[in-house]
Amino acid sequence: MKKTLLGLAIAGMFALTLAPAVSARPFTARDMVTLDRLSDPRISPDGRWVIYARRVADYDANKAANELWLVDLNDKAPAPVRLPASDGGVSSARWSADGRSIYFLSSRSGASQVWRTDIATRNSVKVTDLPLDVGSFRTSPDGKTLLVSMAVYPDCASLACTTQRAAAPKATAGAKANGIVFDRLFIRHWDEWADGTRTQLFAMDLDASGAASNPRPLMQGFDGDSPTKPFGDETDYGFSADGKSVVFSAKVAGKSEPWTTNYDLWKISALNGAAAPQNTTARNTAWDAGPVYAPGGKLMAYRAMKRPGFEADRYQIMIREEDAGGFKDRPLAANWDRSADALAWSADAKTLYALAGDLGQTRIFAIDVESDKVTPVTGPGHVSAFDVNAKGIVYALDDLLTPAQIFFLPAKAGSKPVKLTDANAERLKDVQMGAAEQFSFTGWNNETVYGYVVKPANFDPAKKYPVAFLIHGGPQGSFGNLFHYRWNAQTYAGGGYAVVMIDFHGSTGYGQGFTDSISQHWGDRPLEDLQKGWAYALSKYTFLDGGRACALGGSYGGFMVNWIAGNWNAPWKCLVNHDGIYDARFMASSTEELWFSEWENGGSPWNPGTTYETFNPANFVQNWSKPELVIHGGRDYRVPLEQGIATFTALQRKGVDSKLLYFPEENHWVLKAQNSVQWHDEVMAWLNKYAPPN
């Protein structure tokens, strides 16, 4: 497929604006949580159809459902159609090998199972009838095998064994003694306690009618998960081009699971469950992920990190050439200083497409497999997902002003993208968003650092506006050009605030050296960038009122808020800390993924030469004086609840005006719609109290 550049792949500053709406009103948190969210576009094998997911919120019921929508690219004016398969909920919709039907997951029968809907008749039938929930699936290229993942006890010889064992605790629920014994970590991960199960793969036969039968375990006895936890999906495994083997990403848990990032690619050469998986990347003791076979069967691409124990290392793209004698791996575009995310092959296997952060944007890139030449395919904005075939590329694109829409870029050279959807148009027709602009300045080490400013809605250049200074988490992350559903700049712009966001050293999308620079430097280099970025923004944008500003952040951003409270509190009228760190040393002893704290601080807390105490907010509480709103989730096992309680306790004991907003059922993120609105209402009330708009 020929490469096409969409728009301008610019590295400098740009502005995003929308024409004022008639009788415009500001954007609110209620608007945000009730928007339809478009994602996961997929193009049919023949290139005629595009399917995508549309998440529809029911605010009053405090829940949402995913719908499946279809677009016919043969129409001169393509119009999306909701498929009847949406009734009862649908997720992970994928085309069949022949393009005549769509497989998807649904719990409409009471458990998550694989279903299939026919394109011609639009009728849906159940494909699997398994005793356990199906978490993810793939169909083989020849359409003869279905691969599913289920949570099972790895020592169980049958699915019945898992169901019986899982039911046993319920049978003894009335027992007076209910203690649980653990003999290794993880005891809990993200927002769940360990129950002894592992997510593992099973192969099933697909008959001519599309019904699946004869589940065979492919990982029986394997001490690990595929897909990986907590955020893995079907991209963690894939079929070979002939459908006769499977490669999956997983690590052997053992006793070291919480402090190793050694995920390997394992190959299953026979899908009858008789052979044990073979480790094909044993020589790399860092993270190997995302196997994707090319059409034709000779090539496979995957992503590999180099440094064990570092979850934010650059993902280098690797190309594997296979033949009867084995395989050979080589790096693709080794000098391209970006970390690849999702991968997809062109139909002729000459081009590999990759998603990657790039200077505050998230773009699709085309990489020539022979020459290593890298070409950006999309311009400004945030591509969240894409799919490729011989007819073109379909992708979901959003930015700071607009929620995601689905676009199609035809393969023909010189083609322009076609916008396939206009979701939320009616809902947002009378809403005025705040214009956004990217800027850059000289930060730590005299290096260029980027940031964004977002003007208040219905901006008046004659006025000065209070500022919400947002600090992103990760810390290897980015507050780039995207429509965020937890830290959305437009909710502050709609409340009368200007927004400033700095992609400080440690942020992603600016080269691996830039990302690396924050490790063991949590409190100095990024703080210098924040200070210089704040000074630069005040000098460049005269509508910013530096005397009415509050700093807000979550996760690492919450750590930085507590660090600012003790080390740079002069500019701020108030602070907001969501799921942030209070005591770095205790955080390292109570979090779940230990590799994170150990890499970022240079070792375990008891090792000499670490930075736990160097950049520990708890050591500077004597300087805390600015009002702080503390927010924490009860099921946050990444930054445990006690960190938020300790922050609030210190503030109260010192007599600093403070509040604690506690969500018992939320994890590291606030996901329920009504909780999100409450979150934003409390935050906005806090800002209005100390830095009110005119």
- Low-pLDDT residue spans: 1-12
Main beta-sheet annotation:
9 strands, mixed
Report the portion of residues in β strands: 25-35%
CATH superfamily caption of one domain: Alpha/Beta hydrolase fold, catalytic domain
Radius of gyration: 25 Å
In CATH terms, what is the fold-level topology of one domain? Rossmann fold
Distance between the termini: 55 Å
CATH architecture assignment of one domain: 3-Layer(aba) Sandwich
Individual helix count = 11
Helix content: 10-25%
Question: Per the principal axes of the C-alpha atoms, what is the gross shape?
Answer: globular
The largest sheet has its strands arranged as: 1-34-35-37-36-38-39-40-41
In total, the number of strands is 41
- Decide which structural class fits the backbone: alpha+beta
Quaternary structure type: single chain
Q: What would CATH call the class of one domain? A: Alpha Beta
Average pLDDT works out at 95
